[in-house]
From TrEMBL:
InterPro entries the UniProt entry points to: CS_dom, HSP20-like_chaperone
SUPFAM superfamilies in alphabetical order: HSP20-like chaperones (SSF49764)
Gene3D superfamilies the record matches: 2.60.40.790
Ranges where the record places region Disordered: 219-244
The name this protein goes by in its record: CS domain-containing protein
Biased composition (Basic residues): 231-244
The encoding gene: Contig16003.g17056
Lineage, highest ranks first: Eukaryota, Sar, Alveolata, Ciliophora, Intramacronucleata
Domain CS: from-to ranges: 52-153
Amino acid sequence: MNYFNTTKNQIQKVELEKLPIVLDYMRQGMALVNERMEKLQAYVTKQKDYLIVETPVQWAQSLNHVFVELRYAHRHDAPGCSNADDEQIELTEDTLSLSVLCMEVNTKVKYMIKINLWDKIDVNKSSYEYQAVGRQHFTLAKLNAPARWRTLYQEVNETQQALDKITRNSGKPFQIRLWLQRHEKHVQQLWEFEGDAIDDYEGHQWMEEKNEEYEDYIHKKSLSKKGPIPLKKKKKNKSKKSKK
């Protein structure tokens, strides 16, 4: 019995000696929880001021320029916000960033985006211009020209891609697509260019697997201006040109 009591007393002594350490860890943990709660509260409060939305992006390129359209809207096919305020635009040699505050049906929406560009641009020769119905058009002069960009945004390696999945952060804009109306004007010169090895640039499919889709697009576009054009005849004429 004495042996048991002695052992019990020793255990209690050890526990009492470690108690200050345990309490210290608990205090540190509580301080960390409080700090994170304060940050979360600040974030929630900020979100109440306005809703943050990443702007849709469409782009095209020539051998010397990159053309970008940013729309103040939730998606590509939605009307843009015309009641814009606090517009901030910044161009550097390798980034394009924009933020604008809009009032939509009694709700403040802040449209924001920052794009790390695929290659460098000449800022002094680049420009942007506001268009109707909440659209901003950019004409970016390629620093290394003539050349083709594989895409608009900076690509990342496999390691960074894995990290992006964890952090939910990516260099690729959430809503990005090819600007067809601009792309069609330069697709031929991009296709014929031999000054680089970037043959898989975005939109090259129009001159390969989707050649028929491209012809259909041109055909439908010309109907309203010139009236119906026999599609078979158009394809035949195009095939003759390609043989030359």
